[in-house]
User: Which sequence fits this backbone?
């Protein structure tokens, strides 16, 4: 099962030659020429066509279908899912080196008339079975333009995220669903798949977690598309070319920098074999190249990547021949590789590879698991530094086992000295599972961070970045929730710190204190009366309370149903102010968001005058006329107040 199958981008017929640099990571790309030098033209949002937020950041608004999924997981709800979608978008807003921000625009009711770019999230029966979502950008014909630096790009007009109508097996608060939402937002912004085991990797190899979904590769990719001033100054790059031994360039080869304890960062080569990996934190790294793995069921291309197209706007440029993994400067063994030093603001050039065509790799698509408790398997699991006994790591993938036996000649290693495989511990996992298991010994002096594994055969090495994590403490545990007063709670559990975050579905509570006996005193966000929230604790090391059990339910007190009175009746073109009087509301200055469900009406500011009174400033597109009462949508913590969801919204005075 895969997390995502891309919607192919619209192919365009206009092309320009440009000095646009060889791209890092991987995007939706088109090429203006059929010969070197290749200058990729990416698809991304035009920042000059977007509204700005209060901090003057270009902002793309996302809108959610007002028609909810047909089925939910037990204990789940539409407001809960909306809160998780909003939280996933906020993850990308926290990238300080990206100038683009995301904002919730409400529940989409009508087709917009303006040309303001936006993201639309809908629930569809068209998501193929086995896929969690389908997402991607659409750049219309004639959208070729240039950014502030003079680099050409195709401007995304709309991006669409399709989630399944049947969400009964995918709880919105789960690790899998949250990381999937973050992944899908990445696609809508212009990012494709990567082999860095980051959130933009497929589900097969991702090492992302709900607590720390983004890895360095994700941050570098979004920062390349929408760079802020600090991006290039604080990181370095590695560049070079990959060719076959006869001099033919290797297209769509994956080049990776990697070091123990640090995230991997990758790029794919252009048709002339050139590559650039930027956004790399300073340090010493091994560099290796490997082919994109063959597609799994449901994937349109190798690793689910949408291939770039040529000057005709429709002919895909696929990967060239497979080859064996190679470490710089030309060795099959990581132990014989020469580290490359990366410095801030500097490129390390001429890191070149010469590879030999080979059959498809014998090992690929490896997924690792570990048990934090006796019953809960965690992907890319955390292992405790200083643990009393070896930890067991399970793995599944192509080329590991045959008939419940390890394939002859297959060896396993951990990159670096932080952990090692216990000699002779490799064994098949008990039937009927087609897994293997190895025992890991962790150095007592190891440092926390991601650790990478090598799976070696007679002629190839498969590298799995972030096969597991080393941590200094066990995951947080929530065991009970007790109310002090309305929405002020004491959460009892284990392994809490002052940096622990408590989420009620997709909205963070306010942590007031950590008591001497280890309880967290938390203010819960607003929610409808009798609402049941799924409470999850997240620690900075990437671990969550879901590692040790299900989410803890918290049932809010009964409360009257809120309603709204608004004025004016319609939003005329231009700027206007909407006055909102709430009945049975508790508007929170930090959590209240207002939208009108259309890019035609952008909310520029919300003033919370009292728990029952809002002043909303709106900019309405020329030619648009928005029915205020029908369209207004207020998200206040976990509460969604909208006429489309049954709330009473009337005009003041009626």
Assistant:
């Amino acid at each position: 099962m895969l997390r995502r199958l891309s919607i192919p981008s619209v192919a365009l017929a206009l092309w320009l030659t440009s000095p646009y640099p060889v791209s890092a990571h991987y995007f939706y790309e088109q090429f203006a020429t059929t010969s070197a030098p290749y200058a990729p033209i990416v698809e991304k949002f035009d920042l000059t066509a977007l509204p700005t937020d209060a901090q003057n950041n270009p902002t793309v608004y996302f809108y959610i279908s007002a028609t909810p999924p047909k089925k939910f997981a037990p204990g789940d709800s539409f407001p809960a899912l909306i809160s998780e979608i909003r939280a996933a978008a906020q993850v990308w807003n926290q990238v300080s080196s990206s100038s683009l921000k995301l904002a919730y625009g409400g529940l989409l009711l009508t087709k917009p008339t303006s040309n303001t770019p936006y993201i639309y999230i809908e629930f569809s029966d068209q998501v193929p079975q086995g896929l969690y979502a389908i997402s991607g950008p659409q750049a219309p014909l004639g959208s070729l333009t240039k950014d502030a630096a003079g680099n050409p790009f195709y401007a995304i007009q709309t991006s669409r995220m399709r989630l399944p109508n049947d969400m009964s097996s995918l709880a919105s608060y789960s690790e899998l669903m949250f990381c999937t939402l973050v992944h899908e937002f990445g696609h809508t912004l212009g990012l494709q798949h990567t082999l860095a085991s980051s959130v933009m990797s497929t589900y097969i190899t991702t090492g992302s977690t709900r607590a720390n979904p983004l890895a360095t590769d994700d941050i570098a990719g979004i920062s390349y598309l929408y760079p802020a001033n600090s991006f290039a100054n604080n990181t370095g790059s590695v560049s070079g070319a990959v060719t076959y031994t006869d001099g033919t360039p290797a297209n769509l080869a994956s080049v990776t920098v990697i070091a123990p304890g640090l995230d991997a960062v990758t790029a794919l080569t252009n048709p002339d074999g050139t590559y650039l990996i930027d956004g790399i934190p300073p340090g010493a790294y091994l560099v290796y190249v490997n082919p994109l793995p063959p597609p799994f069921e449901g994937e349109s291309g190798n690793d689910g990547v949408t291939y770039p197209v040529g000057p005709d706007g429709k002919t895909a440029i696929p990967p060239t021949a497979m080859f064996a993994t190679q470490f710089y400067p030309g060795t099959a063994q990581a132990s014989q590789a020469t580290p490359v030093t990366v410095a801030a603001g500097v490129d390390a050039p001429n890191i070149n590879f010469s590879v030999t065509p080979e059959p498809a790799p014998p090992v690929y698509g490896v997924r690792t698991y570990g048990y934090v408790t006796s019953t809960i398997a965690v992907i890319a699991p955390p292992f405790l530094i200083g643990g009393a006994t070896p930890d067991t790591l399970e793995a599944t993938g192509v080329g590991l086992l045959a008939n419940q036996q390890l394939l002859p000649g297959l060896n396993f290693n951990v990159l670096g000295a932080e952990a090692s495989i216990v000699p002779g511990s490799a064994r098949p996992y008990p039937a009927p599972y087609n897994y293997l298991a190895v025992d890991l010994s962790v150095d007592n002096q190891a440092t926390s961070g991601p650790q990478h594994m090598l799976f070696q055969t007679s002629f190839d090495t498969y590298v799995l970045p972030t096969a597991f994590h080393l941590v200094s403490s066990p995951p947080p545990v929530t065991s009970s929730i007790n109310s002090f007063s309305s929405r002020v709670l004491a959460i009892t559990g284990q392994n809490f710190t002052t940096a622990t975050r408590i989420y009620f579905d997709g909205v963070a509570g306010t942590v007031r204190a950590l008591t001497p006996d280890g309880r967290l005193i938390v203010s819960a966000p607003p929610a409808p009366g009798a609402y049941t929230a799924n409470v999850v604790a997240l620690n900075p090391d990437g671990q969550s309370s879901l590692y040790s059990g299900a989410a803890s339910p918290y049932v809010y007190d009964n409360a009257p149903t809120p309603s709204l009175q608004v004025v004016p009746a319609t939003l005329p073109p231009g700027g206007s102010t909407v006055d909102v009087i709430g009945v049975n509301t508790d508007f929170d200055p930090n959590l209240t968001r207002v939208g009108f469900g259309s890019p035609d009406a952008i909310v520029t500011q919300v003033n919370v005058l009292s728990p029952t009174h809002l002043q909303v400033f709106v900019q309405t597109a020329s030619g648009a006329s928005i029915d205020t009462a029908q369209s207004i949508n207020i998200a206040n913590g976990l509460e969604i107040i909208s006429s489309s969801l049954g709330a009473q919204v009337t005009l003041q005075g009626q």
In short: Residues 29-355 form a domain with the Collagenase (Catalytic Domain) fold (CATH 3.40.390.10).
